[in-house]
C-alpha cells in the first residue's frame, strides 16, 4: 500500500488524514495516510525515515514548510515563489519534488463560489507566509490587480518586489481610504485572537466578496466585521484547506477528487 503522511508540530488536530481518507474512498484509491508529529528540530530526519519506509508523498504544515522547501531536489513555480512547500512527492527516479498547493486551493475555492475571476480587483490583507503562498496563483487567475496591505507595510512592499514581474501588484498603507474591491482576502492570523485588521471600511461595498483563510464553527471575527460593512458574501478557509488537499492528492494519484462532499462532511465536524 502506498504511504502518505502529514508532518507538523503540533499535528494532533490535523484534518488531513480524514480529508485524504475520504478522497481515497471516493476515487477508489488504495493508500495509507497518517499524521506524524516531528520534533521541531528533527523534521529532516523524520522525513528521511518516512522515505526509507517507502513513503511516497507527504504534506507539510506549520512550522516546517520553509524547511521542506530547502530539502527538495526540484520545485514547482508556486513553491519557488512562495519560498515554502506543503506537498512533497518522491518521483520514480528518486527525485524529491516540492509543490505548494495552498494558493491553488484558495483560487479553486474562490472560483467554486464565484466562477471565473477575470478582471476582478483583489485586496490581500497580510504579508506573512500564508499571503506569500497565495500570490502567484492569484496573479495567474485572471484578476486585474492585486493590492497588498499589511500592519507592517515594509513586508507588503517586499512581496511586491518579489512578485511584480508576474502581474499587476502593489502595496498600500493598511488604513488607506481607497476604493472598494471585488474580493478581500484576510491572510492574517488576527481572527485567532478575535481581532480584525485595521482596514478602512470603504474597501467593502455591497458587491464585495470577503474571504478569511481562518475558519471555525462560528463565523470568524473578520467575516463578522465584513458582514457588518455590507459585504455581499463571506467565505472561510475550510474550502481552501480541502482545496489544497485535493491539489496534493491529484499530484500524487493523478486523479482529481471532488471537494464538495468532503467539505460538507468536515463542516459538520467543526
Ligand atoms: P502566516 O504564515 O500564518 O502568514 P506569519 O508569517 O507569522 O504567519 O504572518 C502573520 C501575518 O498576520 C502578518 O502579516 C502579520 O502582520 P505583521 O507583518 O505586521 O506582523 C499579520 N497579523 C497577525 N496578527 C495581526 C493583527 N492582530 N492585526 C493585523 N495583522 C496581524
UniProtKB/TrEMBL annotation:
The record's section on Pfam families has:
SDH_C (PF18317), Shikimate_DH (PF01488), Shikimate_dh_N (PF08501)
Q: Which GO terms describe its molecular function?
A: NADP binding; shikimate 3-dehydrogenase (NADP+) activity
Q: Which residues bind shikimate?
A: 14-16, 61, 86, 102, 215, 244
Q: Where is the active site?
A: 65 (proton acceptor)
Enzyme Commission (EC) number: 1.1.1.25
- From the UniProt record, give one GO term of the biological process aspect: chorismate biosynthetic process
Could you tell me what reaction this enzyme catalyses? shikimate + NADP(+) = 3-dehydroshikimate + NADPH + H(+)
- Single GO cellular component term: cytosol
Give the metabolic or biological pathway.
Answer: Metabolic intermediate biosynthesis; chorismate biosynthesis; chorismate from D-erythrose 4-phosphate and phosphoenolpyruvate: step 4/7
Boundaries of every Quinate/shikimate 5-dehydrogenase/glutamyl-tRNA reductase domain copy: 111-191
- Which residues belong to the signal peptide in this entry? none
Q: Which UniProt keywords apply?
A: Amino-acid biosynthesis, Aromatic amino acid biosynthesis, NADP, Oxidoreductase
- Quaternary organization: Homodimer.
- Job of this protein: Involved in the biosynthesis of the chorismate, which leads to the biosynthesis of aromatic amino acids. Catalyzes the reversible NADPH linked reduction of 3-dehydroshikimate (DHSA) to yield shikimate (SA).
Regarding protein family, the annotation reads:
Belongs to the shikimate dehydrogenase family.
| Protein name from the UniProt record | Shikimate dehydrogenase (NADP(+))
Q: From what organism does this protein derive?
A: Shewanella sediminis (strain HAW-EB3)
